[in-house]
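# step 3/5: fold
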Amino acid sequence: MKDRIFIEGQNIYLRNLKKEDIYENYIHWFDDEQVCRTNSHHRFPNSEQDMIKYIENTSNSNFQLVLGIINKKNEIHIGNVSLQNINYINRSAEFAIIIGEKEYWGKGYGKECGKLIIEHGFSELNLNRVYCGTFSENIGMQKLAEKLGFNKEGIRCEAEFKNGKYVDIIEFGLLKRNWK
């Protein structure tokens, strides 16, 4: 069955997550120490039931938009991108992304899908501000935030405990008026 495309880009498209995704590599991303080294995942084992619940909950929510990133060339689900914690009063949302398929790291897919979902947030969800936070060690996410036009807004010192130590979270924000 052909996927229902929600947002289409040049090299990827974004679509709803579906239960069948977990039976491919998706279920393994959050158990992969390398994929999760600089994010808040990989603290508890991931189960099939948890993944199904997550997909059902995100599909039925107007407060988070979680989409699968699909490579157009080979139809592989390479990651997820989201606007979560959508606040309709403050008109803000948190941007998050994970590229779980390591062979797609550093090839521009994060930037492409980031642009697509942020544009959707500003133009269709009427957001005024999109923000994100990342581990101080996550240089790739910091570079992505800057490439997407986010400004560094501050640091939450020792805000997360990961890999046996406390790490700082670098906060970024992007206002609609500054979106390119």
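# step 4/5: annotate
The domain at 7-128 is CATH 3.40.630.30 (Aminopeptidase).
# step 5/5: archive (pending)
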